[in-house]
């Protein structure tokens, strides 16, 4: 432990010997500010506990009682650093420790109770990004909810939250294989059923949140109609907290849009506008509605208003779907340069695929291949493999652009980049 530790780490685990070593290795970079790494084990049957203790973590051999919040709160009980970073065993932490330390010190006496940071979920359905509270203030914050647990104030209410930029702290979640995902969905639905029965018995505002949580889980099982039923009920529950009514409305509108129920979506969007929804989220959802109804110019006008849409609870949504919608709307409206301006970072900065390489080449037209390669290289090499795959699938010209792109990256880094 460092003499003036700023940050402890807490996690709950169960039979995670395949993932835990990589997680612990990623925590080494935090050593200059790191205090205790406390692992609360809920009943491992493999070498998880041995691996944790060999690394130097403090381990509590606890128990599992179908309550994620209780287990996570138990994991917070060791250490004395003013801030706690919580992780899962299948997370890999990426941090700029100097920048992170500066932010944590700046807020030691401030009003911020938690920090959100970028979460990258690398799973069977592709790579998804979101923002999640991962750093919390010791003593004044805790977890609640048996499943889909969230950080709240210990005294009740939402924690005051600031955002860390991705270059300061990013968490990559790696454990979502198809088999693991199916198992987690089934487990969460069973836990939520019990929580929902309890919420119905007691009434009160928690019912809205539980319905919203179950709807999200049902969506993970592709049970969309059941999810819609839960969200409609959540919206009708008069005693529900405003933030979760908004969250439920936004998710309901998104489901209607995804299933082409545009009239139903428009009704919900009108309600959300009247309820004081974030203006950029309003523009985002109305833009998706216009795009779905075949009105690309109207969609483009709305999508141009967006920087980063925020959910009802203030979470930043991923920038990737906004870029994808903007690229699509601009292309359909004949604004090819604007479509390119969205498609290039979508591919080279975020690693999205789905035929983007062919689309970019088509819109680039007869302009020089060298100029396109230079633009792609300006976004860095983080997704060089994805860029190469997309370009090479677009034929001989794509392969040529990829070669030039690799040369540009090599020049920038001073070393060779292996071609895909």
Molecular structure report:
The protein has 420 residues and is an alpha/beta fold. The chain is 50% helix and 16% strand. Helix 10 packs antiparallel against helix 11, helix 13 (336-348) packs antiparallel against helix 14 and helix 15 crosses helix 17. The chain starts with 6 loop residues before the first strand and ends in a 7-residue tail after the last helix.
Please specify the SSE layout and strand pairing.
Blueprint: E1 7-13, H1 20-27, E2 34-41, H2 48-55, E3 58-61, H3 68-75, E4 83-88, E5 91-95, H4 97-106, E6 114-123, E7 126-137, E8 141-144, E9 150-153, E10 161-163, E11 169-173, H5 178-202, H6 206-220, H7 224-236, H8 242-258, H9 262-274, H10 279-292, H11 296-303, H12 320-332, H13 336-348, H14 356-364, H15 369-377, H16 384-392, H17 396-413
Parallel strand pairs: 1-2, 1-4, 2-3, 6-10, 6-11
Antiparallel strand pairs: 4-7, 5-11, 6-7, 8-9
Notable features of this structure?
single chain, 420 residues, alpha/beta, 17 helices, disordered C terminus
Name the poorly predicted regions: 415-420
Distance between the termini: 43 Å
| Amount of helix | 40-55%
State the shape: globular
Question: How is the main sheet built?
Answer: 9 strands, mixed
Number of strands: 11
The average pLDDT score comes to: 91
- State the secondary-structure class: alpha/beta
Order of helices and strands: EHEHEHEEHEEEEEEHHHHHHHHHHHHH
The number of helical segments is 17
Query: Which range does the strand content fall in?
Result: 15-25%
Radius of gyration: 23 Å
């Amino acid at each position: 432990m460092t003499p003036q530790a700023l940050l402890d780490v807490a996690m709950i685990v169960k039979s995670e010997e395949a993932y835990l070593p990589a997680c612990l290795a990623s925590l080494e970079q935090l050593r200059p500010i790191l205090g205790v790494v406390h692992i609360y084990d809920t009943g491992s049957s493999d070498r998880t506990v041995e691996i944790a203790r060999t690394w130097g973590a403090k381990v509590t051999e606890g128990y599992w009682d179908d309550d994620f919040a209780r287990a996570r709160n138990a994991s917070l009980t060791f250490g004395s650093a003013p801030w706690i970073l919580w992780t899962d065993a299948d997370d890999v932490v990426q941090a700029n420790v100097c920048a992170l330390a500066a932010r944590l010190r700046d807020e030691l006496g401030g009003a911020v109770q938690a920090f959100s940071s970028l979460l990258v979920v690398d799973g069977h359905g592709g790579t998804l990004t979101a923002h999640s509270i991962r750093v919390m203030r010791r003593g004044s914050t805790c977890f609640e909810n048996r499943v889909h647990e969230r950080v709240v104030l210990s005294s009740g209410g939402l924690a005051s939250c600031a955002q860390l930029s991705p270059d300061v702290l990013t968490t990559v979640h790696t454990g979502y294989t198809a088999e693991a995902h199916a198992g987690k969905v089934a487990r969460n639905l069973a836990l939520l059923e019990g929580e929902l029965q309890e919420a119905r018995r007691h009434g009160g505002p928690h019912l809205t949140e539980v319905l919203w949580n179950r709807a999200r889980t049902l969506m993970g099982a592709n049970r969309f109609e059941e999810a819609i039923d839960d969200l409609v009920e959540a919206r009708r529950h008069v005693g529900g907290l405003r933030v979760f009514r908004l969250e439920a409305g936004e998710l309901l509108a998104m489901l209607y849009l995804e299933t082409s129920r545009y009239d139903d979506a428009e009704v919900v969007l009108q309600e959300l506008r009247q309820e004081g929804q974030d203006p950029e989220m309003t523009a985002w959802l109305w833009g998706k509605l216009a795009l779905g109804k075949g009105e690309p110019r109207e969609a483009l006008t709305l999508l141009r208003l967006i920087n980063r849409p925020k959910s009802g609870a203030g979470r930043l949504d991923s920038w990737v779907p906004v870029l994808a919608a903007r690229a699509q709307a601009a292309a359909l409206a004949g604004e090819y340069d604007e479509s390119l301006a969205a498609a290039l970072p979508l591919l080279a900065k975020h690693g999205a695929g789905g035929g983007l390489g062919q689309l970019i080449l088509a819109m680039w037209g007869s302009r020089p291949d060298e100029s396109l390669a230079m633009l792609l290289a300006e976004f860095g090499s983080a997704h060089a493999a994805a860029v190469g795959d997309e370009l090479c699938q677009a034929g001989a010209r794509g392969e040529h652009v990829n070669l030039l792109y690799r040369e540009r990256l090599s020049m920038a880094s001073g070393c060779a980049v292996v071609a895909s």
